[in-house]
């Protein structure tokens, strides 16, 4: 398999981050990812109401954003089902009329919205459907390939797999190692500028897409592959399984949120027990790499105080014999040390 050469169409910055009228902060992860990882690319946020979630940057109108040099309106939302609310159309059309490109990570294509492609052609702007932008793919083979790969997995969806992957890539680089972030979701693709939104790939080609995304390479190269969903989530387990097989991971990093009461969007579905979740992910990963190991935990502890967070992380580490950290609160260094130590 040859090295990756495909790149999605360039999305021109600076961006105006459009949050619509969402009130669920987790759904703002597209915009929040830009603010955390590429803050220099955002001129501001655009909210339709005062109750709309904020990602902590200045509210800016389309006119003011254009005056500040904004080139692309980025739909900063990734909601369940990936459908653009019909009442957001006017804002999208307004941005197009002001000469702005539009970038969306939704399942619903911008080109399928009535009147939008025609207006885009009229004003000479580009519509970027990030989720649907990938090359022709092959089915997976499971053939062993060289390189060192880390896959982030989770007890649920939307709890920090992308953040953990980016933090790991940065931490390994700072340790002097050759590390690459391999994006598998629309937010990650926007941040990295390349990758494949796996949840928009036909099921038969998911593992093959990940094999293409992280091909054979030098054993000294670390590929940090962004995980998606959870084997225990009824809606998204299929994508998670395809990633586990295609990634052929040497190491898994388990992501979790302390205090989450139930699976996302499923109030009658309790969170899985940690040991069962770990074993299920290891068992699935062994299909293509029998030597896979659990490397550690990346835990979102934002819902508890610091003392409780430290106690819970220590308990996880003692129970499973691997490092546990909150990369936001306590840094990624324990996981970087755990990974490099495990490889020696």
From TrEMBL:
Q: Which InterPro entries match?
A: DgcN-like (IPR011669), DgcN-like_C (IPR035086), DgcN-like_N (IPR035402), P-loop_NTPase (IPR027417)
**Entries under Gene3D superfamilies matching the protein:** NAD(P)-binding Rossmann-like Domain, P-loop containing nucleotide triphosphate hydrolases
| Domain (D-glutamate N-acetyltransferase-like C-terminal) ranges | 139-336
Segments crossing the lipid bilayer:
none
Q: Which domain of life is it from?
A: Bacteria
Cite the D-glutamate N-acetyltransferase-like N-terminal domain residue spans from the record.
55-132
Protein's UniProt name? EBNA-1 nuclear protein
Organism of this sequence = Kushneria pakistanensis
Upper taxonomic lineage = Bacteria, Pseudomonadati, Pseudomonadota, Gammaproteobacteria, Oceanospirillales
């Amino acid at each position: 398999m040859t090295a990756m050469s495909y790149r999605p169409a360039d999305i021109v910055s600076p961006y105006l981050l459009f949050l619509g009228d969402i009130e669920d902060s987790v759904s703002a992860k597209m915009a929040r990812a830009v603010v955390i990882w590429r803050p220099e690319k955002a001129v501001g946020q655009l909210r339709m109401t005062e109750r709309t979630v904020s990602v902590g940057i200045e509210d800016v109108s389309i006119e003011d954003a254009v005056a500040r040099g904004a080139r692309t309106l980025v739909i900063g939302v990734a909601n369940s089902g990936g459908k653009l609310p019909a009442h957001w159309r006017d804002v999208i059309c307004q941005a197009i009329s002001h000469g702005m490109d539009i970038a969306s990570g939704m399942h619903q294509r911008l080109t399928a919205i009535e009147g939008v492609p025609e207006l885009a052609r009229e004003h000479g702007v580009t519509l970027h459907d990030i989720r649907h932008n990938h090359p022709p793919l092959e089915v997976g083979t499971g053939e062993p390939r060289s390189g060192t790969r880390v896959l982030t997995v989770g007890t649920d969806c939307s709890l920090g797999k992308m953040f953990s992957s980016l933090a790991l890539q940065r931490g390994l680089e700072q340790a002097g190692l050759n590390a690459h972030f391999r994006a598998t979701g629309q937010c990650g693709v926007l941040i990295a500028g390349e990758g494949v939104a796996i949840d928009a790939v036909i099921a038969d080609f998911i593992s093959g897409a990940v094999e293409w995304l992280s091909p054979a390479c030098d054993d000294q190269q670390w590929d940090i592959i962004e995980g998606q969903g959870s084997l225990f989530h009824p809606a998204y387990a299929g994508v998670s399984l395809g990633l586990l097989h295609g990634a052929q991971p040497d190491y898994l990093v388990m992501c979790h949120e302390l205090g989450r009461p139930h699976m996302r969007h499923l109030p009658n579905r309790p969170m899985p027990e940690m040991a069962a979740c770990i074993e299920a992910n290891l068992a699935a990963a062994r299909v293509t790499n029998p030597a896979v190991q659990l490397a550690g935990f990346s835990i979102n502890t934002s819902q508890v105080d610091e003392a409780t967070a430290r106690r819970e992380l220590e308990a996880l580490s003692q129970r499973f014999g691997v490092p546990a950290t909150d990369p936001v609160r306590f840094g990624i260094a324990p996981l970087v040390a755990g990974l490099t130590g495990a490889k020696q």
